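BUG-396 | component: ligand-complex export | severity: low

The export step for nicotinamide-adenine-dinucleotide jobs runs without errors, but we want the raw record kept on the ticket for reference. Input record follows.
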Amino acid sequence: MKTKLRLGVIGVGSVVREIYQHLYFRSDFSHLLDVCAAADPNEQFRNWFCDLAGIPAERRFTDYRDMLAKVQLDAVQVNTPDHLHCGPTVDALRAGLDVVVPKPAAATLKDAHAMIRAASDAGRFLGVDFHKREDPRFKEAEARYQGGRYGQFQVGVLYMIDKLQVADPNHAPRFFASPDFAEKNTPVSFLTVHMADALMKVVHLAPVQVRAVGYAQRLPALRPIPVKGYDLVDTEILFENGAVAHIITGWHLPNTAHSLTVQSNRLICSEGMIDLGLDTPGYREIHADGITEVNPLFKNFEKGGTVTGYGISSPGRLYQHILALRNGQLSQHDYEGHMTPIALGFYTTLVLQGAEKSLAEGSSPARGVTLGSTVDLRRLLADELGPSAAKEYGMG
Ligand SMILES: NC(=O)c1ccc[n+]([C@@H]2O[C@H](COP(=O)([O-])OP(=O)(O)OC[C@H]3O[C@@H](n4cnc5c(N)ncnc54)[C@H](O)[C@@H]3O)[C@@H](O)[C@H]2O)c1
C-alpha cells in the first residue's frame, strides 16, 4: 500500500508562497507528499522553491514536459496562471498521473472540458482547490440547506471586496509580484469564482444565465501606474430553479478596511435565510496598525510550526482522495462524486466565461460603467463545445 505520493509541482509563484508551501512542508498532510520535482520557467521562483524542498538540480525544470518525461511521479499540482492550467493538466493525466489545480479549474469552457475529458478517459483524479469548500461555515450551510431546512433558494447577495493594495501596483511592497496583475486578472476571474463555487456547493443548482455590470473608476485613476481593469463587478446569476444571486466582487476598498478581504453572504430561501459574516470569524485585533479582523479559520499557525485551517485542508483532502484512488480504496461512488460539473468547477468556469462575455458585449451608460449583455449559458455551452455538451454537463 502506498503511503506517500511522489508529487511534481508545476508553477511556484505567489499561491505557492502564500498557501501551498505550508501544505507541502508544514501541515497535517505533508507526510502524504514527497515533493520531489518542480518546473517553472522563472529561475528565481524555481530556485527558491527547490531550495526549500531540498530538490536537487537534476529535478529542477524550466519545462514541465521534461519533468513528466524524466521523473517518476504519482501526481502533479499545476499552479500556473488560470489560462495555462489546461496543457500541463492534460499532459499529466495522459501520462497516468493525478492532478490538483488551484481555482478556477480553467479560464475557458474549452480548457475545462479538455481537462475533464482527459481525467475521465484516463480514469484519473482531477481535483480543484476551491478552499471555501472546506470552510466550516459553508459545510454547515450545505448540510442544513440540503437537509431541506430552508426550502428553496430564492435570492442571494454575496460580497467579496478586497483592499485596494491587492490590485494596486503602486503599493509597496506589491501584494502580487507582477505589476500587471489586476490587468491580467479581473474581479470575476479572481474573486467571483470563489463565491460562485461556494454558493453552488451549498445549493447544488446549475447556473443558466449571467449578466454583469462592471465599474472601472478607481483603478484607472491610480498614479503613477494606472490599472486598465475593473474596480468592482456585480455578476447576476440566474439558476435553473429561478433563483437569482448577485455576486459583488472587487479590489478597491480603502487600505484601512477592517479586513484584507471584506466578505459576507445572505441567502434568502422560501423557508428561511442564511447569513454568513465571513470576515468576522471572531478574532478582532486592536493594535497601533489599526482595528483588524483576523481569520485563523483560513490559515492557523500552530505551536510547533504546523499550519492548519481550510486553506490547507482543502487541497490536503484532495491528496487524501488521490492516495485512496492509487491504493484502490476510492469507491466508484466516491470517484463519481468527484466527477460532477460542480465538483470539477465546470459550472464556475461557465459563470466566469459568461460574465466576461457579458462585460465584453456591454454598453456604457455612464463614464467608467459597463452594463453587460444577458448571456444564456446553455447557448454559450453549445457554441463553445457543441450541441451535446449541455446534456453531458447536466444542463440538457
Ligand atoms: N486559492 C487561492 O485563493 C488562490 C490565490 C492566488 C492564486 N490562485 C490561483 O493559483 C494560480 C497561480 O496564481 P499565482 O498568483 O501563484 O500566479 P503567479 O503569476 O504568481 O505564479 C504563476 C507561476 O507559474 C509559472 N508558470 C507560468 N507558465 C508556466 C509553465 N508553462 N510551466 C510551469 N510554470 C509556469 C510562472 O513563472 C509563475 O512562477 C492561478 O490559477 C490563480 O488563480 C489561487
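Assignee comment: Attached the raw record above. The longest helix spans residues 187-203.
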